[in-house]
Amino acid sequence: MINLIVAINKNNGIGMLNKIPWRLPSDLRYFKEITNSLGSNSVIMGRKTWDSLPFKPLPGRQNIVLTTNPTTIEKRVDTTVATSFEDLEDKIKEIDCTNNWVIGGEDIYKYFINKPVRNLYITRVHNDRECDAFFPDIPSHFELKSRSEIKKENGEYFHYEVLQDPNYFFKVMK
Ligand SMILES: NC(=O)c1ccc[n+]([C@@H]2O[C@H](COP(=O)([O-])OP(=O)(O)OC[C@H]3O[C@@H](n4cnc5c(N)ncnc54)[C@H](OP(=O)(O)O)[C@@H]3O)[C@@H](O)[C@H]2O)c1
After folding, report:
1. What is the DSSP letter of 70?
2. How many domains does the chain have?
3. 49: how many CB neighbours lie within 10 A of its CB?
4. 12 C-alpha to center of ligand 1: Å?
5. CATH number of the domain bearing residue 165
6. Distance 149 CA to ligand 1 centre (A)
């Protein structure tokens, strides 16, 4: 199953200068918990997001990194490189995890948002800080399944949402 997880601000901003422009430790814990769901898990990311990770690979999950230059990615345990979106789709099938988590950045989200995706796990961060990377518009077939209460940490207000495509399984069976 393909799922997508992201933290977005009020302008759909997700990053600035290859960093996430807010610090929410509880959101990082939420990300870790969700992407380590029951069964096997992969995390799918672009090379710039990979570069931005302070510790890599993300432990306990198969890391799949999209890049045109595989030699830039060190051969690490639990890490696979894909050199095109077609190759990425093949690698996801080969690795055959229960859950495949698309974790960014903009290039990767833009591609997957138009593919069958079961769940969108969205952290809505209530600021309008300047960003240079953005999340695409969310297609109208996604339905809101849950919304948390508003939380506050480090002076930031935020809440969690889960959106779901009710026709996901029908789409992947076709
Ligand atoms: N808020 C959040 O939840 C969140 C999550 C993740 C990331 N982010 C932020 O998003 C930003 C990074 O996003 P981004 O869009 O700049 O970069 P990205 O999507 O992480 O990575 C882009 C890279 O992916 C590779 N790529 C893209 N399309 C490809 C294709 N068709 N074939 C082969 N390789 C391909 C290229 O790598 P090569 O140049 O090596 O070829 C490209 O430079 C950062 O600011 C990061 O902090 C935010």
Report:
1. G
2. 1
3. 24
4. 16
5. 3.40.430.10
6. 30
